[in-house]
Amino acid sequence: MRRESGFTLISVMIALILLSVGVMALARAGGEVAAARTTSAVKTNAVAIARGHMEYLRSRPPQDLTSESAVQVDEGGDINGAGAYTRSVQLTTESSTLLNVKVIVDYPRANEPVEIITLIYLPPVPT
Fold first, then answer.
1. Which of 26, 27, 45, 65 has the most CB atoms within 10 Å of its CB?
2. What pLDDT band is residue 2 in, cutting at 50, 70 and 90?
3. From CA 49, how far away is CA 37, in angstroms rounded?
């Protein structure tokens, strides 16, 4: 009897199983990369919203600043009831001439919100 060389059915099946496991791993990795990219873009936008609002607050007279409760904002930082982001401001008086300002922006799929903190000098009140 002549011996024929080639692949057996078992070796072909094992190769197909290994190939399918590799393709599934690549598909899962691709999905996780896409999710990470989306989360990164949303967080970057949240930082931009926080920075923009902090700059707005810093341009106002310090004695006019007040804390703000949470409000829904859109991607541009404008108040919008259907916005995906939530922005709030917390003011704390550190001393008679120092104000702690914290802008907090919560975003979709956030583990923790973005917080930007600055200190603003309060000029003494003339007597």
1. 45
2. low
3. 18
Please say whether the beta carbons of 99 and 91 come within 8 A: yes
At residue 49, φ and ψ (nearest 5 deg) are: -65, -45
What type of residue is 15? A
Query: Whole-prediction pTM value?
Result: 0.74
3-state secondary structure of 100: strand
**Nearest residue to 53 via CA among 22, 84, 86:** 86
Separation of CA 124 from chain center: 38
Cβ-in-10-Å burial (0-12, 13-18, 19+) of 84 comes to middle
Residue 104 bridge partners (DSSP): 88, 115
Domain segments of the chain as ranges: 9-121
pLDDT, averaged across the chain: 90
pLDDT at 35 over 70: yes
Q: Which residues make beta-bridge pairs with 107? A: none
Closest residue by Cα to residue 113 from 23, 52, 46: 46
Identity of residue 59:
S
